[in-house]
Amino acid sequence: MFHVPGADDVLRGTLLHMSDSKALAHWLTHNPAGRHLAARFVAGEDLDAAIAAVRTLNDGGLMATLDHLGERVTRAEEATAAAAEYVTILDRLHDTGVDSNVSLKLTQMGLDISRQLCLENLLRVLKQAQAIGQFVRLDMESSRHTQDILDVFAEVWAHGYRNCGIVLQAYLHRTERDVEWAIELGCRVRLCKGAYAEPPSVAFAEKHDTDANFVKLARKLLEGQLYPGLATHDPHIISEVKSWNFATSAFEFQMLYGVRPELQRQLAGEGYRVRAYVPFGSDWYAYFMRRLAERPANLIFFLTQLKDALPSHHSS
Ligand SMILES: Cc1cc2nc3c(=O)[nH]c(=O)nc-3n(C[C@H](O)[C@H](O)[C@H](O)COP(=O)(O)OP(=O)(O)OC[C@H]3O[C@@H](n4cnc5c(N)ncnc54)[C@H](O)[C@@H]3O)c2cc1C
Q1: Which residues are catalytic?
Q2: Cα(120)–Cα(100) distance, rounded to whole angstroms?
Q3: Structural domains of the chain ordered from first start
Q4: What is the reported pTM?
Q5: pLDDT tens-digit map of 291-312
């Protein structure tokens, strides 16, 4: 069957392609109005702001995972600095005692430069995390990187690191097999729908197929007893998962900072474990564009705010 793209699909695709633009990234991240708008999804530009956001979430009964924004790094020094920054973050989490682990992207650790460099950087972070009893989640990126990310993960697993987990995306055709692989290995999985522009050869074109696959794979992960992180804001999926009556200690719901915060608090109030994904840093452009693409209404809101925030030009 052919998938006929609607206006939302076109907008989503355009925004996701724009998320690669270095020129737009430079313009928006250096624009005070842009920074103001990103604050809806980004906890701040430095670690102090991020820790303060985590404290507020903890006070509301939520756990957190900190993401120091950055991806697709092209210089080795940048990747090494990103790993060092994660070591600093882990130390701060330990010193402050806030309830948060960390999430990172392997392309930020140098995956596009050299697999060996990426592995060394990741091992540095994992070693520090292990020393302080912390957990590190490897975010999943575009399908171009899926196998490499899983391979690097398998390598650190073979090194004996068990304080590390992966993310699998329900929109990919391959993911059911990856879920089975993860269950066999016994590693922790965050399941999400998937946030990148992917062709129909690798991913479901219809949203309802992705949603159905999410439900199916969530059930498999719960039955596999992997303490999965079910990362979605989708009210239908959340009610379905609740109706299965697994112990609330058997999994956690995960949601993004700034997205449906009232639902996050409500679920925590009902006794579910809820973790908020808290990104921070100045490299927020690609992350921000993916959030706009997920919900076209965000774009209307964003453009209205941008218009109000930019200096007006009067023509005579
Ligand atoms: C904790 C967490 C970690 C993630 N990690 C990854 C990852 O490693 N790799 C990856 O590819 N993707 C990741 N994602 C993103 C994910 O793949 C989806 O793109 C995103 O969560 C939107 O899908 P949804 O399940 O919320 O459902 P949707 O069906 O897209 O949305 C359901 C409802 O949620 C609300 N909503 C969803 N997104 C937004 C938004 N941006 N702004 C406002 N409201 C919104 C709306 O009310 C919408 O109707 C992560 C998501 C979460 C929550």
Answers
A1: 139, 190
A2: 24
A3: 42-283 (3.20.20.220)
A4: 0.94
A5: 999 987 888 877 777 766 665 5
